[in-house]
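User: structure tokens for Protein ImuA, please.
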Amino acid sequence: MLAAAPLGVDSIDRALGGGLARGRLHDLFAAEPADGGAATGFAALLARLAMPASAPLLWLRQGEAEQRGGRLHAPGLMEIGLDPARLVLVVVADPVTLLRAAADVVRCPQVGAAVIELWGHPRALDLTASRRLAVAAEDSGVTTLMLRGGADPGPSAAQTRWRIASAPSLALEADAPGHPAFDLTLLRQRGRPDGGQWRVEWDRERGRFHEPALSGAMVPAAAGGSATSPLRA
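Assistant: Done. Predicted tokens:
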């Protein structure tokens, strides 16, 4: 079994059993439509943490996701420490074709990580399709992130399920813009207790997440319980 990828926040890594499980399928949902950019950024950061240093990131997008959420921005990827030269981007109009391509991508062990971005609730993404991707990820060791826009959580074979919202960042010295900030909710994980909420920032220099010093935003849910909506500072 591959070693987990630590996120850098002790309470999150403990909840996950050491960090994000590599070689597994993970579901990511935006809390609200306006949080789509935050969910996309979080997916990119998880991929950065989980994949080997020299391996490529395969990002498969449904055309509707690009139309509604905008294109990936290379300077923005560089700002969070992800080299755009490592990104292979594929945009497919049909979700059936996208999922077939995704299954082939995830089976390839030379892929560092895969992001599969779908919009809404395509009929092709059923529990069987989710299981197929989960098994392929486990066999190949490719960490697979299912990024869902305009969708609510449903049955899935994913190892973890996350809800992501944007959060206000704390200004740095001389009122410089702060680090990218997220409100994270761990909705579900297989084989471990569900639930947990955290406010985190991304530290590009250290290549890890951390908790804002003044937010006090981490509120773990009871073991085995479900989490409510993210807290606001």
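User: Anything notable?

Assistant: The domain at 10-210 is CATH 3.40.50.300 (Rossmann fold).
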